[in-house]
Write a structure and sequence with these properties.
alpha/beta, seven-stranded mixed beta sheet, five-stranded antiparallel beta sheet
């Protein structure tokens, strides 16, 4: 008998993957968590029925959350990651030697626990001495830490359950206040095929707060539609003004210095959502 996992991405569309083994299923204090091993994408973390990360394609998302912002800021010493309990963004942040401290604030400690156990290639840097892991509400952490961080990265689930507040204007205002005077933030902002309204709303809200706002894209096959957007808000530095010839080559699988600006060249229908 074959076992298949299907994520229903809309009411009439989904993706499916053949399962080798179900490793964990648990209802945590915040969400339904599953860790499954698939034939096509390897081990997969699923929260509330949505694919969060897989061993095969995780590098795209994690690299593209971390590196555009960190190579735009000239001296990112203190970095905050909100969410991201699988540890992938933290792993990428630590590739930047100028980062002195990376703080991870994840509301669900079970995500951290099972990622360390079943996704060591992703979560392997969570015990690094440059990292502080806090199991708490990222929304409240932001509001309690004014003028603290150089770069803030929001690695959230889609806007359901505990992540709803992480797509609110009040949260973006709190991020602005938690950043230093030349700070940068970046957040995943879903896909333009099924969530166009969300991208428009986030873009409008962030533009009301930050003087520089840029949207960029990446291809992530296990995320809805495969085309994913990220929104970057900056107080001072424009990612399009970065001299890519001065970006060092680091160990990556997706991000490159040449891609730094290219990712901001949007398909016309996505560009229209940001106007």
């Amino acid at each position: 008998m074959e076992l298949w996992y299907t994520e229903k991405q809309t009411e009439s569309f989904g993706i499916t993957a053949k399962i080798r083994e179900t490793l964990v299923t648990e209802k945590t204090d915040f969400q339904d968590l599953a860790m499954i091993d698939t034939e096509e994408f390897g081990r997969m973390l699923v929260l509330d029925g949505m694919v969060m990360t897989t061993v095969k394609d995780e590098f795209v998302y994690h690299e593209m959350v971390a590196h555009p912002a960190l190579y735009t800021h000239p001296n990112p010493k203190h970095v905050l990651v909100v969410g991201g309990g699988d540890g992938g963004v933290i792993r990428e942040v630590l590739k930047h030697p100028e980062v002195e401290k990376a703080v991870l604030v994840e509301i669900d400690g079970k995500v951290i626990e099972y990622s360390k156990k079943y996704l060591p290639e992703i979560a392997g840097q969570l015990d690094n001495p440059r990292v502080e892991v806090i199991v708490n509400d990222g929304y409240m952490h932001i509001h309690d830490h004014k003028n603290t961080y150089d770069v803030i990265m929001v690695d959230s689930t889609e806007p359901v359950g505990p992540a709803v507040e992480l797509f609110s204007r009040g949260f973006y205002q709190g991020i602005f206040e938690a950043l230093k005077e030349d700070g940068i933030f970046v957040a995943q902002t879903d896909n333009p095929w099924f969530k166009a309204d969300l991208i428009q709303t986030v873009n409008r809200d962030v533009k009301e707060i930050f003087p520089i706002v840029r949207v960029y894209c990446a291809n992530i096959p296990t995320y809805p539609s495969g085309l994913w957007t990220f929104t970057l808000g900056s107080k001072k530095y424009d990612p399009l003004e970065v001299d890519e010839t001065k970006i060092p080559e680091i160990e990556t699988k997706y991000y490159t210095p040449r891609l730094h600006k290219a990712a901001f060249a949007l398909p016309k229908f996505v560009e229209d959502l940001t106007k």
